[in-house]
Design goal:
Elements: E1 2-6, E2 9-13, H1 15-28, E3 32-35, H2 40-48, E4 57-62, E5 65-75, H3 80-99, E6 102-114
Parallel strand pairs: 5-6
Antiparallel strand pairs: 1-2, 3-5, 4-5
Helix pairs in contact: 1-3
Length: 123
């Protein structure tokens, strides 16, 4: 749980909500073909649930600021630097606008690259 103290009370938001919000936002970015499990527990869970939207996402809250780690798979031939900048900006914007919390840092790890094999087969 991530807690936000306000003058009228406390708001608690689950880390699962953040993970799903961030995973969905990252997958919408051009050039991202999939999310990659970032831990053994996520990898085990992904084995049984193929459409696990929060895989590849880690969220930490320190002193009310969010630190986000993303593990992604990109499409071959895409400018990785441009993809990463786009993801960082979009994730930061969506999370801050949706929750009101400040995102301190977004780390993007490109773990693999997806090669389109249909072009090799003449399809």
């Amino acid at each position: 749980m991530i807690s936000i103290e306000k003058s009228v009370g406390c708001i608690e938001i689950s880390k699962e909500y953040f993970s799903r919000l961030i995973g969905f936002t990252a997958l919408e970015c051009f050039g991202v073909s999939d999310m990659v499990p970032s831990s053994p527990s996520q990898e085990f869970r992904a084995f049984f649930r193929k459409n696990d939207i929060d895989r590849g996402v880690k969220v930490k809250s320190i002193n009310g600021k969010l630190y986000i780690d993303l593990h992604i798979e990109v499409s071959y031939g895409i400018n990785i630097s441009a993809i990463v900048k786009s993801i960082v900006n979009k994730v930061r914007y969506v999370v801050e606008e949706t929750t009101g919390l400040q995102v301190e840092k977004v780390n993007v790890y490109v773990d693999s690259m997806k090669v389109d094999t249909s072009a090799d087969k003449g399809e």
